[in-house]
Amino acid sequence: MKKIQKHKTSTHPPIHSFTHPPIHPSTHSPIHSSTRPLINPSTHQPINPSTHTPILPTSSSLLPTSSIPCFILAGGKSSRFGEDKAKHFYTLQYKICKSVFKEVYFAAKYKKFKNYPFFIEKSKTYAPIFALEEIIKKHKKVFVINIDTPLITPKTIRKLLSKKAVAAQNPLIGYYDYTMLKKISKSKKTNLKIYGINKNSIKIPKKEAVNINKKEDLKLNLSNIIRQRRKWNIK
Which residues neighbour 47 within 8 Å (Cβ) at sequence distance 6 or greater? Predict the structure, then answer.
């Protein structure tokens, strides 16, 4: 009689019992428990445990390339909006700028958002010309953008940066450097205006130059803003 061979029971766990570690959004490599980032409870985004700044998903086309620092102007009173509008746009604006610049800061009179880098303005006057002067004196060459232009794109930012220009429709989007300090000083003593400080201006797409100054502006541009937020994976 033939011997009936018994199948040995495998000592390996079934395939479905394996668990895979989460994937790092930037490097696309496994994040092991000892190196997993912290999670921001308010935005649900991973945070770098060393720098306490958001870890952003990147691709080869979105890797930051500019060594010039970017400053997101977030120190306004938002009097026409009725509340601090910065809280509606800061996550989106930071993500957009971080895809272009290695260093991105918010500029305001105090630190408004946790886990984000800030440049604290010394001036007590609410006018962007004062913040611009302080930033340039410290960093020499900078790119600035106001926080309430949520429809801006990296492509437009890179174009302005390469031309060392500002947006013709909105000079609070663009390049500035230390050679413009005399003009800034003169403006501080007269009209506090930023128009003309950098004479090199170029037109950008009308939609991208939109400022959300009032809640009516938010309603008019809401569908575009929602699309922009979805594009950048912001709920």
Answer: 37, 38, 39, 40, 53, 54, 55, 115
Question: What torsion do the CA atoms of 33, 50, 42, 216 make, to the nearest 10 degrees?
Answer: -140
How crowded is residue 195: how many other Cβ atoms within 10 Å of its Cβ?
14
Return the ∠ at Cα 96 (arms to 79 and 87), rounded to 5°: 30
Residue whose pair of structure tokens reads 């609410």 in the numeric block: 126
Which residue shows structure tokens 């993500």? Answer: 95
- How far apart are alpha carbons 147 and 212 in whole angstroms? 9
Angle at 118 between CA 98 and CA 63, to 5 degrees: 10
User: What is the C-alpha to C-alpha distance for residues 135 and 17, in angstroms, rounded to an integer?
Assistant: 54
Query: Tokens for 84?
Result: 């601090």
Give per-residue pLDDT as tens, 109-152: 999 998 999 999 999 888 999 999 999 999 999 999 999 999 99
Domain 38-231 has CATH 3.30.300.30: no
φ/ψ region of 211 (left if φ > 0, alpha if ψ in -120 to 50, else beta) reads beta
